[in-house]
Amino acid sequence: MKPDKQWEEEVERATQSAEQMRHEIPHIVKAHYDPKLRRIILSVSSGAWFAFRPEDAQGLEHATDAQLKKMEISFSGYGVYFPLLDEDFWYPSLLQGQFGTRKWMAARLGSAGGASRSKAKVTAARANGKLGGRPRKTAS
């Protein structure tokens, strides 16, 4: 079955748009994992580097060094794929600090907020512990 003219024109427009984007917006040209620094490092066409910890990215938190070393850059240059983990990331989203789904990111922010260890919080927790801790909830 031969593709119709409208489909061919749409593919051509998409190809031109992608080429224009590659010229205007920096894209990934090299990607590697540094086990010593425990960082994924993306080299960008502008000459800049972008690095992040695997622990900060959904799906990479428990990955081994061998799993992290195997990565591929997408054809567009805007994605990085970890085939041994079946995880991929969109470079523009990483730049915006989006390392996972909204739900996953919200859970990470919530757990970080509850982990505060200020001097006042420690003192209050000790004083509360001397009084028997938190009061038990009673059924109404």
Q: How many H/I helical runs? A: 5
| Class from helix and strand fractions | alpha+beta
Low-confidence stretches: none
Order of strands in the sheet with the most strands?
A: 1-2-3
**How much helicity do the residues have?**
25-40%
Strand content: 15-25%
**Mean of residue pLDDT values:** 86
- Radius of gyration using CA atoms only: 23 Å
Overall shape: elongated
β-strand number? 6
Q: How far is the N terminus from the C terminus?
A: 70 Å
Secondary-structure element string: HEEEHEEEHHH
Main sheet summary: 3 strands, antiparallel
Model description:
The structure is a single chain. The protein is an alpha+beta fold and 140 residues long. 39% of the residues lie in helices and 19% in strands. The strands form two sheets. The chain has a three-stranded antiparallel β-sheet. The radius of gyration is 23 Å and the shape is elongated.
Summarize the structure.
This protein has 5 helices and 6 strands; from the N terminus they run αβββαβββααα. With 140 residues, it is of the alpha+beta class.
Write the layout of secondary structure elements.
Layout: H1 5-24, E1 28-34, E2 39-44, E3 49-52, H2 65-69, E4 72-73, E5 79-82, E6 87-90, H3 91-95, H4 102-114, H5 119-130
Antiparallel strand pairs: 1-2, 2-3, 4-5, 5-6
